[in-house]
Amino acid sequence: MEETTDSPLQDPKPVPLEQEDFKRIADHMSDVVWVVDLEGRFTYVSPSVLQLRGYRPDEIVGQMFEEALVPEEGQQIRALFPEVLAQFRASRSAQVRRFVTQPCRDGSNIPSEILTNGIYDEEGHLVAVLGVTRDISERHRLEQELRHAKQQAERALAEVRTLSGLIPICSSCRKVRGDQGYWERVEDYIASHTAARFSHGMCPTCLVRYFPECAGDPLNCTPDPEDPA
Questions:
Q1: Residue 16 to residue 110: CA distance in whole angstroms
Q2: How many CB atoms lie within 10 A of CB 76?
């Protein structure tokens, strides 16, 4: 009896996508897929634009791409559009990424990231621009919170002042000459230049000086509160 063996699995051949296949895939993506012609006019927008911006695709198709952006950013990208086309003509692998702000039907603005590539005909000529837009509102919110926390930390750090260099102090009364030339108590000077605060007490030497009855055991002595300190 002749033995038979299973033939090894072969790598699947890539299946070329037709225009209808591309549209079917794009229509079911959560990101917004769009195509603009070489003038920058929308020729296709996926249905997910309704969820992102509140507009139907048929309301976007036919518009110039800058109309999908806040005015200032739209003008900036319109000025860069010839340069972007030049990049796509120079290299079929070129990609352009940009962070933009898009106006919504309800009057709000939504931060978005767009990634664009060229679309080419069979002869390799650039015929259109393919773009994908992604909502980055959550990432933008986290970045804003991080920026705010950093600013708070920097402000707190700026409030912490340290002492350095020579400090002019009176050899008799021990007062310190401050920044404005006035003499002030050491604790007042340090408190105004650092975050340190003072609690007052007496060292053993001063305790015995003012309370002689504590001479035997100054560390464990409790002076009579009626005695002058």
A1: 35
A2: 13
- Name beta bridge partners: 174: none
Residue 218: per-residue pLDDT? 65
Q: Is the pLDDT of residue 141 over 70?
A: yes
Reported as a single tens digit per residue, the pLDDT across 210-220 is 777 777 776 67
Q: Which of residues 44 and 205 earns the better pLDDT score?
A: 44
Amino acid, single-letter form, for residue 118? G
**204, 217 contact by CB (below 8 A):** no
| Residues 170, 173, 176: CA angle, nearest 5 degrees | 45
> C-alpha distances in angstroms, 61 versus 118, 138, 154?
19, 28, 47
CATH topology for 19-140? Answer: Beta-Lactamase (3.30.450)
Compute the distance between CA of residue 26 and CA of residue 175 in angstroms, rounded to an integer: 78
First to last CA, the chain: 116
State yes or no: pLDDT of 190 exceeds 80: no
